[in-house]
Amino acid sequence: MQKRSKNKRIFSRPKNQKDALLKSLATALFLHGKITTTQAKAKELRIVAEKCITRARDNSLANRRILGSRFAPAVTKKLIDEIAPKYANRPGGYTRMVNLGPRKTDGAKMAIIELVK
Question: Per the domain annotation, does 21 fall within a domain?
Fold first, then answer.
């Protein structure tokens, strides 16, 4: 049985699988600007995405290496060169989450998470 943290969702997965899930969701968000997923995944993704954008805003070599080790080169380039400059004067809140109705197949609460303009 997995140990449950007070403030983190585990998604019934081991830590490495949860990290891979959030990494792939963040990659899709940065490449497409908007994705549809479940509400719980969107809430966790928001934390990861905001930290990555904040790190990309400070365009230092150390931050480039950290983001480069976490994401593919195309995603890192887009994050640093295109996404981060849009939020240079914004203190936070780079993502918006819009709740949708339940999914028809299993009734899971759905949400759209997108980068604000």
Answer: yes
In 1-117, DSSP assigns E strands to: 34-38, 95-102, 109-115
pLDDT by residue, tens only, the chain of 117 residues: 565 556 778 888 999 999 999 999 999 999 999 999 999 999 999 999 999 999 999 999 999 999 999 999 999 999 999 999 999 999 999 999 999 999 999 999 999 999 998
Question: Is residue 65 helix, strand or coil?
Answer: helix
* Domain hosting residue 101, numbered range: 15-115
Sign of CA pseudo-dihedral 43, 45, 48, 53: negative
Question: DSSP letter at 79?
Answer: I
Residue 99 lies in a domain: yes
Give the total number of structural domains in the chain.
1
